[in-house]
Amino acid sequence: MKRLLIFAVLLAGALQANAQSRDFSFGKGVETQYSVLKEVAASYVDTIDYQKMLTTGIQAMLSTLDPYTVYIPEEEEEDFELLTTGNYGGIGSLIKKRVDGGVLISEPYAGSPAVLAGLAPGDTIVAIDGKSVFGETSEQSTSRMKGVPGTEVKLTVIKGRTGKKEDVVVKRERIHIPSIAYSGIIKDSIGYIKITSFTEKLSREVRPALADLKNKGAKRIVIDLRGNGGGVMEEAVEMISMFVPKGTHAMSSKGRLETMNREYYTTSAPFDTEIPLLVMVNSSSASASEITSGALQDLDRATIAGKRTFGKGLIQSVRPVPYNGQVKVTTGKYYIPSGRCVQAIDYSHRNEDGSVGNIPDSLKKEFKTIKGRSVYDGGGITPDIEVDEHVYSRPTLSLAYFDITGDYAIEYYKKHEKIAPATEFYLTDEEYEDFVNYAASREFDARSAAQTALDQLITMAKREDMYDLYKAEIDALAEKVNMDKAQIIRVKKAEIKPILEEEIVSRYYFPEMGEMVALRVDTQLDKAIEKWVSGI
Questions:
Q1: Active site includes 522?
Q2: Could you tell me which CATH number the domain at 87-176 has?
Q3: 51-81, pLDDT tens digit by residue?
Protein backbone atom coordinates (compact mmCIF):
# COMPACT_ATOMS: atom_id res chain seq x y z
CA MET A 1 0.00 0.00 0.00
CA LYS A 2 2.85 2.39 0.91
CA ARG A 3 4.43 1.79 -2.52
CA LEU A 4 1.11 2.53 -4.20
CA LEU A 5 0.74 5.78 -2.28
CA ILE A 6 4.30 6.83 -3.21
CA PHE A 7 3.59 5.98 -6.87
CA ALA A 8 0.36 7.97 -6.83
CA VAL A 9 2.10 11.00 -5.32
CA LEU A 10 4.91 10.77 -7.89
CA LEU A 11 2.40 10.40 -10.75
CA ALA A 12 0.40 13.40 -9.57
CA GLY A 13 3.59 15.41 -9.28
CA ALA A 14 4.67 14.41 -12.79
CA LEU A 15 1.30 15.36 -14.25
CA GLN A 16 1.35 18.68 -12.41
CA ALA A 17 4.92 19.36 -13.60
CA ASN A 18 3.95 18.50 -17.15
CA ALA A 19 0.98 20.87 -17.00
CA GLN A 20 3.18 23.61 -15.55
CA SER A 21 5.72 22.99 -18.30
CA ARG A 22 3.02 23.38 -20.96
CA ASP A 23 1.72 26.54 -19.33
CA PHE A 24 5.26 27.96 -19.13
CA SER A 25 5.94 27.17 -22.80
CA PHE A 26 2.68 28.79 -23.82
CA GLY A 27 3.33 31.91 -21.73
CA LYS A 28 6.91 32.13 -22.96
CA GLY A 29 5.79 31.93 -26.60
CA VAL A 30 3.09 34.59 -26.22
CA GLU A 31 5.47 36.94 -24.38
CA THR A 32 8.18 36.46 -27.01
CA GLN A 33 5.73 37.08 -29.85
CA TYR A 34 4.47 40.27 -28.22
CA SER A 35 8.04 41.50 -27.64
CA VAL A 36 8.99 40.88 -31.30
CA LEU A 37 5.93 42.78 -32.53
CA LYS A 38 6.65 45.64 -30.12
CA GLU A 39 10.25 45.96 -31.31
CA VAL A 40 9.28 45.82 -34.99
CA ALA A 41 6.55 48.44 -34.46
CA ALA A 42 9.02 50.76 -32.74
CA SER A 43 12.02 50.31 -35.02
CA TYR A 44 11.08 49.13 -38.52
CA VAL A 45 12.25 51.57 -41.18
CA ASP A 46 9.13 51.60 -43.43
CA THR A 47 5.39 51.80 -42.90
CA ILE A 48 3.91 48.55 -41.62
CA ASP A 49 0.59 47.02 -42.68
CA TYR A 50 -0.20 45.61 -39.24
CA GLN A 51 -3.43 43.93 -40.32
CA LYS A 52 -1.69 42.00 -43.09
CA MET A 53 1.30 41.09 -40.92
CA LEU A 54 -0.77 39.86 -37.98
CA THR A 55 -3.24 37.92 -40.13
CA THR A 56 -0.34 36.26 -41.97
CA GLY A 57 1.29 35.44 -38.62
CA ILE A 58 -1.88 33.84 -37.26
CA GLN A 59 -2.41 31.77 -40.40
CA ALA A 60 1.24 30.64 -40.40
CA MET A 61 0.96 29.64 -36.74
CA LEU A 62 -2.17 27.59 -37.38
CA SER A 63 -0.69 25.96 -40.50
CA THR A 64 1.74 24.06 -38.26
CA LEU A 65 -1.26 22.06 -36.99
CA ASP A 66 -3.13 20.93 -40.12
CA PRO A 67 -4.48 22.50 -43.34
CA TYR A 68 -8.01 22.81 -41.94
CA THR A 69 -7.39 24.87 -38.80
CA VAL A 70 -7.60 28.45 -40.09
CA TYR A 71 -8.38 32.00 -39.00
CA ILE A 72 -11.32 33.70 -40.73
CA PRO A 73 -11.19 37.51 -40.38
CA GLU A 74 -14.39 39.53 -40.55
CA GLU A 75 -13.81 40.55 -44.18
CA GLU A 76 -13.75 36.87 -45.27
CA GLU A 77 -16.88 35.88 -43.37
CA GLU A 78 -19.08 36.12 -46.48
CA ASP A 79 -16.82 33.72 -48.37
CA PHE A 80 -16.99 31.29 -45.44
CA GLU A 81 -20.79 31.53 -45.41
CA LEU A 82 -20.84 30.69 -49.12
CA LEU A 83 -18.82 27.53 -48.46
CA THR A 84 -21.06 26.31 -45.63
CA THR A 85 -24.49 27.43 -46.85
CA GLY A 86 -24.11 28.01 -50.59
CA ASN A 87 -25.69 31.45 -50.06
CA TYR A 88 -24.58 35.04 -50.65
CA GLY A 89 -26.16 38.39 -51.49
CA GLY A 90 -25.50 39.47 -55.07
CA ILE A 91 -26.53 39.36 -58.73
CA GLY A 92 -25.96 35.64 -59.37
CA SER A 93 -23.29 35.16 -62.03
CA LEU A 94 -19.79 33.86 -62.51
CA ILE A 95 -17.54 36.66 -63.73
CA LYS A 96 -13.94 36.99 -64.90
CA LYS A 97 -11.62 39.92 -65.37
CA ARG A 98 -10.84 40.73 -69.00
CA VAL A 99 -7.32 41.57 -70.12
CA ASP A 100 -8.48 45.10 -70.93
CA GLY A 101 -9.73 45.55 -67.35
CA GLY A 102 -13.48 45.08 -67.87
CA VAL A 103 -15.54 42.51 -65.98
CA LEU A 104 -16.96 39.77 -68.19
CA ILE A 105 -20.26 38.06 -67.44
CA SER A 106 -19.24 34.42 -67.92
CA GLU A 107 -22.07 32.22 -66.62
CA PRO A 108 -25.23 33.72 -65.07
CA TYR A 109 -27.14 31.32 -62.79
CA ALA A 110 -30.57 30.15 -63.92
CA GLY A 111 -33.32 32.46 -62.61
CA SER A 112 -30.80 34.86 -61.04
CA PRO A 113 -31.18 38.66 -60.80
CA ALA A 114 -28.54 38.91 -63.55
CA VAL A 115 -30.68 36.86 -65.94
CA LEU A 116 -33.88 38.71 -64.97
CA ALA A 117 -32.12 42.01 -65.71
CA GLY A 118 -31.13 40.78 -69.19
CA LEU A 119 -27.42 40.16 -68.59
CA ALA A 120 -25.94 37.41 -70.75
CA PRO A 121 -22.62 35.61 -71.35
CA GLY A 122 -20.21 37.95 -73.13
CA ASP A 123 -21.60 41.18 -71.66
CA THR A 124 -18.83 43.34 -70.21
CA ILE A 125 -19.29 45.48 -67.11
CA VAL A 126 -17.28 48.71 -67.32
CA ALA A 127 -18.67 50.55 -64.28
CA ILE A 128 -20.49 49.72 -61.04
CA ASP A 129 -22.73 52.44 -59.58
CA GLY A 130 -21.01 54.94 -61.87
CA LYS A 131 -17.49 54.04 -60.77
CA SER A 132 -15.18 52.43 -63.34
CA VAL A 133 -14.00 48.85 -62.79
CA PHE A 134 -10.73 49.49 -64.63
CA GLY A 135 -7.78 49.25 -62.28
CA GLU A 136 -9.67 47.04 -59.84
CA THR A 137 -9.01 43.39 -59.09
CA SER A 138 -11.69 40.84 -59.80
CA GLU A 139 -12.26 40.50 -56.03
CA GLN A 140 -12.79 44.27 -55.65
CA SER A 141 -15.36 44.37 -58.45
CA THR A 142 -17.11 41.29 -57.07
CA SER A 143 -17.30 42.86 -53.62
CA ARG A 144 -18.98 45.96 -55.05
CA MET A 145 -21.58 43.87 -56.88
CA LYS A 146 -22.41 41.87 -53.76
CA GLY A 147 -24.59 43.42 -51.09
CA VAL A 148 -27.69 43.23 -48.94
CA PRO A 149 -30.56 41.39 -50.68
CA GLY A 150 -33.22 43.83 -51.83
CA THR A 151 -30.79 46.65 -52.61
CA GLU A 152 -30.02 47.73 -56.17
CA VAL A 153 -26.78 48.08 -58.08
CA LYS A 154 -26.38 49.94 -61.38
CA LEU A 155 -24.08 48.28 -63.90
CA THR A 156 -22.80 50.03 -67.01
CA VAL A 157 -22.53 47.26 -69.57
CA ILE A 158 -21.29 46.78 -73.13
CA LYS A 159 -23.57 44.10 -74.62
CA GLY A 160 -21.68 41.17 -76.10
CA ARG A 161 -23.86 40.60 -79.15
CA THR A 162 -24.53 44.21 -80.17
CA GLY A 163 -21.59 46.16 -78.73
CA LYS A 164 -24.03 48.76 -77.40
CA LYS A 165 -23.39 50.45 -74.07
CA GLU A 166 -26.26 50.63 -71.60
CA ASP A 167 -27.04 50.95 -67.90
CA VAL A 168 -28.64 47.92 -66.26
CA VAL A 169 -30.17 48.13 -62.77
CA VAL A 170 -30.04 44.80 -60.94
CA LYS A 171 -31.86 44.08 -57.69
CA ARG A 172 -29.64 41.98 -55.47
CA GLU A 173 -31.10 38.82 -54.00
CA ARG A 174 -30.06 36.05 -51.68
CA ILE A 175 -28.28 33.81 -54.15
CA HIS A 176 -28.26 30.09 -53.45
CA ILE A 177 -25.83 27.95 -55.40
CA PRO A 178 -27.43 24.49 -55.57
CA SER A 179 -25.42 21.58 -54.21
CA ILE A 180 -26.95 19.34 -56.86
CA ALA A 181 -25.16 19.98 -60.16
CA TYR A 182 -27.41 17.66 -62.17
CA SER A 183 -30.21 15.17 -61.62
CA GLY A 184 -31.88 12.99 -64.25
CA ILE A 185 -32.43 9.55 -65.76
CA ILE A 186 -29.26 8.57 -67.61
CA LYS A 187 -29.81 5.06 -68.97
CA ASP A 188 -31.79 1.86 -68.43
CA SER A 189 -34.00 3.33 -65.67
CA ILE A 190 -30.97 4.52 -63.68
CA GLY A 191 -31.44 7.76 -61.78
CA TYR A 192 -28.39 9.97 -61.35
CA ILE A 193 -27.64 12.79 -58.89
CA LYS A 194 -24.34 14.71 -58.87
CA ILE A 195 -23.69 16.47 -55.55
CA THR A 196 -20.90 19.07 -55.47
CA SER A 197 -20.82 19.96 -51.76
CA PHE A 198 -22.45 19.22 -48.41
CA THR A 199 -23.89 22.65 -47.65
CA GLU A 200 -26.55 23.31 -45.00
CA LYS A 201 -29.97 21.91 -45.94
CA LEU A 202 -28.52 19.74 -48.72
CA SER A 203 -31.01 17.03 -47.77
CA ARG A 204 -33.87 19.40 -48.68
CA GLU A 205 -32.54 19.41 -52.24
CA VAL A 206 -31.78 15.69 -52.46
CA ARG A 207 -35.10 14.26 -51.22
CA PRO A 208 -37.23 16.01 -53.87
CA ALA A 209 -34.66 15.05 -56.52
CA LEU A 210 -34.88 11.39 -55.48
CA ALA A 211 -38.68 11.51 -55.54
CA ASP A 212 -38.61 13.06 -59.02
CA LEU A 213 -36.29 10.34 -60.31
CA LYS A 214 -38.49 7.62 -58.88
CA ASN A 215 -41.57 9.20 -60.46
CA LYS A 216 -39.72 9.14 -63.80
CA GLY A 217 -39.18 5.40 -63.47
CA ALA A 218 -35.77 5.09 -61.79
CA LYS A 219 -35.15 1.52 -60.61
CA ARG A 220 -31.58 2.18 -59.48
CA ILE A 221 -29.87 5.31 -58.11
CA VAL A 222 -26.34 6.67 -58.66
CA ILE A 223 -25.06 9.28 -56.19
CA ASP A 224 -22.01 10.99 -57.69
CA LEU A 225 -19.64 12.43 -55.04
CA ARG A 226 -16.58 12.72 -57.29
CA GLY A 227 -14.83 16.02 -56.66
CA ASN A 228 -17.03 16.69 -53.62
CA GLY A 229 -14.76 18.07 -50.88
CA GLY A 230 -17.39 17.74 -48.15
CA GLY A 231 -18.93 20.38 -45.93
CA VAL A 232 -21.41 20.14 -43.06
CA MET A 233 -21.03 16.85 -41.20
CA GLU A 234 -24.66 16.70 -40.09
CA GLU A 235 -25.76 16.76 -43.73
CA ALA A 236 -23.76 13.58 -44.32
CA VAL A 237 -25.81 11.91 -41.60
CA GLU A 238 -28.98 13.20 -43.29
CA MET A 239 -27.80 11.72 -46.60
CA ILE A 240 -27.26 8.34 -44.95
CA SER A 241 -30.71 8.65 -43.34
CA MET A 242 -32.39 8.56 -46.74
CA PHE A 243 -31.31 4.98 -47.44
CA VAL A 244 -31.30 3.15 -44.10
CA PRO A 245 -33.91 2.56 -41.35
CA LYS A 246 -34.45 5.35 -38.84
CA GLY A 247 -32.25 4.92 -35.77
CA THR A 248 -29.31 3.36 -37.67
CA HIS A 249 -25.84 4.13 -36.29
CA ALA A 250 -24.23 6.42 -38.90
CA MET A 251 -20.96 7.57 -37.32
CA SER A 252 -19.23 8.62 -34.13
CA SER A 253 -16.84 11.41 -33.20
CA LYS A 254 -14.01 11.57 -30.68
CA GLY A 255 -12.01 14.54 -29.50
CA ARG A 256 -10.18 16.18 -26.62
CA LEU A 257 -13.33 17.83 -25.30
CA GLU A 258 -16.03 15.63 -23.82
CA THR A 259 -18.64 17.32 -26.01
CA MET A 260 -16.91 15.86 -29.10
CA ASN A 261 -17.36 12.28 -27.91
CA ARG A 262 -20.74 11.29 -29.26
CA GLU A 263 -22.62 8.83 -31.42
CA TYR A 264 -24.73 9.85 -34.42
CA TYR A 265 -27.85 7.94 -35.40
CA THR A 266 -30.19 8.59 -38.29
CA THR A 267 -33.21 10.53 -37.07
CA SER A 268 -35.19 11.07 -40.28
CA ALA A 269 -37.54 8.67 -42.03
CA PRO A 270 -35.76 6.99 -44.97
CA PHE A 271 -36.63 7.69 -48.58
CA ASP A 272 -36.01 4.11 -49.73
CA THR A 273 -34.14 1.33 -47.95
CA GLU A 274 -34.26 -1.18 -50.83
CA ILE A 275 -33.49 0.59 -54.12
CA PRO A 276 -30.05 -0.45 -55.46
CA LEU A 277 -27.52 2.31 -54.81
CA LEU A 278 -24.17 3.13 -56.43
CA VAL A 279 -21.94 5.87 -54.99
CA MET A 280 -19.19 7.29 -57.23
CA VAL A 281 -16.05 8.65 -55.52
CA ASN A 282 -12.51 9.71 -56.41
CA SER A 283 -9.39 11.14 -54.80
CA SER A 284 -11.10 14.53 -54.41
CA SER A 285 -14.05 13.10 -52.46
CA ALA A 286 -13.37 14.15 -48.88
CA SER A 287 -14.80 14.63 -45.39
CA ALA A 288 -18.62 14.49 -45.53
CA SER A 289 -18.36 12.63 -48.85
CA GLU A 290 -16.28 10.00 -47.08
CA ILE A 291 -18.69 9.79 -44.16
CA THR A 292 -21.56 9.18 -46.58
CA SER A 293 -19.81 6.69 -48.87
CA GLY A 294 -17.99 4.94 -46.02
CA ALA A 295 -21.07 4.54 -43.84
CA LEU A 296 -23.17 3.21 -46.73
CA GLN A 297 -20.34 0.76 -47.48
CA ASP A 298 -20.04 -0.33 -43.83
CA LEU A 299 -23.81 -0.82 -43.65
CA ASP A 300 -23.72 -2.82 -46.89
CA ARG A 301 -26.34 -0.44 -48.26
CA ALA A 302 -24.47 0.79 -51.35
CA THR A 303 -21.80 -0.26 -53.82
CA ILE A 304 -18.92 2.23 -53.89
CA ALA A 305 -17.17 2.75 -57.24
CA GLY A 306 -14.32 4.85 -58.64
CA LYS A 307 -10.99 5.52 -56.94
CA ARG A 308 -9.89 5.72 -53.31
CA THR A 309 -11.08 8.88 -51.56
CA PHE A 310 -9.02 11.76 -50.15
CA GLY A 311 -8.57 10.58 -46.56
CA LYS A 312 -9.85 13.42 -44.33
CA GLY A 313 -11.33 12.12 -41.11
CA LEU A 314 -11.00 15.35 -39.13
CA ILE A 315 -13.84 17.46 -37.72
CA GLN A 316 -13.69 21.25 -37.55
CA SER A 317 -15.60 23.49 -35.17
CA VAL A 318 -15.99 27.24 -35.64
CA ARG A 319 -15.23 29.46 -32.61
CA PRO A 320 -15.69 33.25 -32.36
CA VAL A 321 -12.66 35.45 -31.69
CA PRO A 322 -12.42 39.24 -31.08
CA TYR A 323 -13.35 41.82 -33.73
CA ASN A 324 -15.95 39.60 -35.42
CA GLY A 325 -13.41 37.04 -36.55
CA GLN A 326 -13.68 33.28 -36.36
CA VAL A 327 -11.25 30.41 -36.02
CA LYS A 328 -12.03 27.04 -37.56
CA VAL A 329 -10.34 24.46 -35.31
CA THR A 330 -9.87 20.73 -35.76
CA THR A 331 -11.57 19.41 -32.64
CA GLY A 332 -12.04 15.72 -33.35
CA LYS A 333 -11.95 12.71 -35.64
CA TYR A 334 -14.93 10.84 -37.00
CA TYR A 335 -15.42 7.10 -37.23
CA ILE A 336 -17.86 5.32 -39.53
CA PRO A 337 -20.06 2.39 -38.38
CA SER A 338 -17.42 -0.37 -38.70
CA GLY A 339 -15.22 1.62 -36.31
CA ARG A 340 -12.62 2.71 -38.86
CA CYS A 341 -11.39 6.27 -39.30
CA VAL A 342 -10.74 7.47 -42.86
CA GLN A 343 -8.00 9.90 -41.80
CA ALA A 344 -4.70 9.07 -43.48
CA ILE A 345 -2.33 7.25 -41.11
CA ASP A 346 0.73 8.97 -42.57
CA TYR A 347 -0.48 12.52 -43.02
CA SER A 348 2.83 13.82 -44.36
CA HIS A 349 3.06 11.54 -47.41
CA ARG A 350 0.27 12.30 -49.86
CA ASN A 351 -0.17 12.38 -53.62
CA GLU A 352 0.23 15.59 -55.61
CA ASP A 353 -3.52 16.30 -55.30
CA GLY A 354 -3.30 15.95 -51.51
CA SER A 355 -5.05 12.58 -51.37
CA VAL A 356 -3.81 9.48 -49.57
CA GLY A 357 -0.48 8.10 -50.75
CA ASN A 358 0.51 4.45 -50.76
CA ILE A 359 -0.24 2.76 -47.42
CA PRO A 360 1.64 -0.50 -46.69
CA ASP A 361 -0.66 -3.41 -45.85
CA SER A 362 1.21 -3.84 -42.57
CA LEU A 363 -0.12 -0.49 -41.37
CA LYS A 364 -3.75 -1.21 -42.25
CA LYS A 365 -6.23 -2.57 -39.74
CA GLU A 366 -9.11 -4.82 -40.77
CA PHE A 367 -12.72 -4.01 -39.93
CA LYS A 368 -16.00 -5.71 -40.82
CA THR A 369 -19.16 -4.45 -42.50
CA ILE A 370 -22.64 -5.36 -41.23
CA LYS A 371 -22.62 -8.47 -43.45
CA GLY A 372 -19.06 -9.44 -42.50
CA ARG A 373 -17.13 -8.12 -45.52
CA SER A 374 -13.57 -6.97 -44.81
CA VAL A 375 -12.81 -3.25 -45.06
CA TYR A 376 -9.68 -1.40 -44.00
CA ASP A 377 -8.50 1.87 -42.51
CA GLY A 378 -5.26 3.62 -43.42
CA GLY A 379 -6.77 6.56 -45.25
CA GLY A 380 -9.83 7.15 -47.38
CA ILE A 381 -12.53 4.79 -48.61
CA THR A 382 -11.42 2.04 -51.00
CA PRO A 383 -14.18 1.41 -53.57
CA ASP A 384 -15.84 -1.97 -54.01
CA ILE A 385 -15.47 -1.45 -57.76
CA GLU A 386 -12.23 0.27 -58.75
CA VAL A 387 -12.44 2.10 -62.07
CA ASP A 388 -9.75 4.43 -63.43
CA GLU A 389 -10.62 7.97 -64.45
CA HIS A 390 -9.83 9.31 -67.90
CA VAL A 391 -6.42 11.01 -67.83
CA TYR A 392 -6.50 14.15 -69.95
CA SER A 393 -3.49 15.16 -72.02
CA ARG A 394 -1.31 18.16 -71.15
CA PRO A 395 -2.58 20.33 -74.03
CA THR A 396 -6.22 19.71 -73.06
CA LEU A 397 -5.54 20.56 -69.43
CA SER A 398 -3.67 23.67 -70.52
CA LEU A 399 -6.63 24.83 -72.64
CA ALA A 400 -8.88 24.42 -69.62
CA TYR A 401 -6.40 26.04 -67.20
CA PHE A 402 -6.18 29.18 -69.32
CA ASP A 403 -9.98 29.02 -69.84
CA ILE A 404 -9.56 29.11 -73.61
CA THR A 405 -12.46 26.66 -73.99
CA GLY A 406 -14.64 28.92 -71.82
CA ASP A 407 -13.63 32.03 -73.74
CA TYR A 408 -14.46 30.36 -77.05
CA ALA A 409 -17.87 29.33 -75.69
CA ILE A 410 -18.63 33.00 -75.02
CA GLU A 411 -17.47 34.00 -78.51
CA TYR A 412 -19.70 31.25 -79.91
CA TYR A 413 -22.64 32.57 -77.84
CA LYS A 414 -22.12 36.07 -79.22
CA LYS A 415 -22.31 34.81 -82.82
CA HIS A 416 -25.19 32.32 -82.50
CA GLU A 417 -28.55 33.46 -81.16
CA LYS A 418 -29.68 29.90 -80.46
CA ILE A 419 -28.52 26.30 -80.69
CA ALA A 420 -30.14 22.85 -80.75
CA PRO A 421 -31.54 21.42 -77.50
CA ALA A 422 -28.79 20.34 -75.11
CA THR A 423 -29.38 16.63 -75.75
CA GLU A 424 -28.93 17.16 -79.50
CA PHE A 425 -26.14 19.73 -79.62
CA TYR A 426 -22.83 18.73 -81.21
CA LEU A 427 -20.17 20.92 -82.84
CA THR A 428 -19.70 20.43 -86.56
CA ASP A 429 -16.27 19.73 -88.03
CA GLU A 430 -16.24 23.26 -89.45
CA GLU A 431 -17.04 24.75 -86.05
CA TYR A 432 -14.28 22.71 -84.41
CA GLU A 433 -11.84 23.97 -87.02
CA ASP A 434 -12.91 27.50 -86.09
CA PHE A 435 -11.96 26.68 -82.49
CA VAL A 436 -8.59 25.33 -83.68
CA ASN A 437 -7.80 28.69 -85.29
CA TYR A 438 -9.07 30.61 -82.26
CA ALA A 439 -7.08 28.57 -79.72
CA ALA A 440 -3.91 28.57 -81.85
CA SER A 441 -3.91 32.37 -81.63
CA ARG A 442 -3.94 32.25 -77.81
CA GLU A 443 -1.06 31.75 -75.40
CA PHE A 444 -1.03 28.33 -73.70
CA ASP A 445 1.38 25.42 -73.25
CA ALA A 446 0.49 23.11 -76.14
CA ARG A 447 3.34 20.65 -75.59
CA SER A 448 2.39 17.01 -75.26
CA ALA A 449 3.86 14.80 -72.53
CA ALA A 450 6.19 13.38 -75.19
CA GLN A 451 7.39 16.87 -76.11
CA THR A 452 8.08 17.83 -72.50
CA ALA A 453 9.96 14.55 -71.98
CA LEU A 454 12.04 15.32 -75.07
CA ASP A 455 12.75 18.84 -73.78
CA GLN A 456 13.95 17.34 -70.50
CA LEU A 457 16.14 14.86 -72.38
CA ILE A 458 17.76 17.69 -74.34
CA THR A 459 18.36 19.68 -71.15
CA MET A 460 19.99 16.70 -69.42
CA ALA A 461 22.10 15.84 -72.50
CA LYS A 462 23.43 19.41 -72.66
CA ARG A 463 24.09 19.45 -68.94
CA GLU A 464 26.20 16.31 -69.28
CA ASP A 465 27.95 17.53 -72.48
CA MET A 466 26.44 14.66 -74.49
CA TYR A 467 24.00 16.59 -76.70
CA ASP A 468 26.27 16.55 -79.77
CA LEU A 469 26.65 12.79 -79.40
CA TYR A 470 22.85 12.25 -79.52
CA LYS A 471 21.93 15.20 -81.74
CA ALA A 472 21.00 13.18 -84.86
CA GLU A 473 18.72 10.85 -82.92
CA ILE A 474 17.19 13.75 -80.96
CA ASP A 475 16.50 15.72 -84.13
CA ALA A 476 14.81 12.69 -85.73
CA LEU A 477 12.66 12.15 -82.64
CA ALA A 478 11.82 15.86 -82.42
CA GLU A 479 10.58 15.82 -86.01
CA LYS A 480 8.07 13.14 -85.06
CA VAL A 481 6.79 14.42 -81.68
CA ASN A 482 6.96 18.20 -82.03
CA MET A 483 3.67 19.70 -83.20
CA ASP A 484 2.42 23.26 -83.34
CA LYS A 485 -0.73 24.38 -81.48
CA ALA A 486 -3.12 23.78 -84.37
CA GLN A 487 -1.76 20.29 -84.99
CA ILE A 488 -2.03 19.17 -81.37
CA ILE A 489 -5.58 20.54 -81.04
CA ARG A 490 -6.62 18.58 -84.14
CA VAL A 491 -4.94 15.41 -82.85
CA LYS A 492 -6.76 15.74 -79.50
CA LYS A 493 -10.15 16.50 -81.09
CA ALA A 494 -11.91 13.49 -79.52
CA GLU A 495 -10.85 14.71 -76.08
CA ILE A 496 -11.33 18.47 -76.51
CA LYS A 497 -14.57 18.60 -78.52
CA PRO A 498 -16.83 17.24 -75.71
CA ILE A 499 -15.37 19.82 -73.30
CA LEU A 500 -16.20 22.58 -75.78
CA GLU A 501 -19.74 21.26 -76.21
CA GLU A 502 -20.22 21.23 -72.43
CA GLU A 503 -18.98 24.84 -72.16
CA ILE A 504 -21.23 26.07 -74.99
CA VAL A 505 -24.35 24.29 -73.71
CA SER A 506 -23.71 25.81 -70.26
CA ARG A 507 -23.91 29.31 -71.77
CA TYR A 508 -27.29 28.69 -73.42
CA TYR A 509 -28.98 26.31 -70.97
CA PHE A 510 -27.02 26.98 -67.74
CA PRO A 511 -24.46 24.73 -65.99
CA GLU A 512 -26.92 21.94 -65.13
CA MET A 513 -27.34 21.07 -68.80
CA GLY A 514 -23.59 21.34 -69.27
CA GLU A 515 -23.20 18.61 -66.66
CA MET A 516 -25.66 16.47 -68.62
CA VAL A 517 -23.57 16.91 -71.78
CA ALA A 518 -20.41 15.92 -69.86
CA LEU A 519 -22.01 12.58 -68.99
CA ARG A 520 -21.95 11.60 -72.67
CA VAL A 521 -18.20 10.90 -72.43
CA ASP A 522 -17.94 9.85 -68.76
CA THR A 523 -16.27 6.50 -69.38
CA GLN A 524 -15.49 5.95 -65.69
CA LEU A 525 -19.19 6.19 -64.81
CA ASP A 526 -20.17 3.97 -67.76
CA LYS A 527 -17.72 1.24 -66.73
CA ALA A 528 -18.77 1.45 -63.07
CA ILE A 529 -22.45 1.10 -63.96
CA GLU A 530 -21.72 -1.82 -66.30
CA LYS A 531 -19.89 -3.72 -63.55
CA TRP A 532 -22.48 -2.78 -60.94
CA VAL A 533 -25.47 -3.92 -62.98
CA SER A 534 -23.78 -7.14 -64.10
CA GLY A 535 -22.75 -7.93 -60.53
CA ILE A 536 -19.03 -8.10 -61.28
A1: no
A2: 2.30.42.10
A3: 888 888 888 888 888 888 888 887 776 666 6
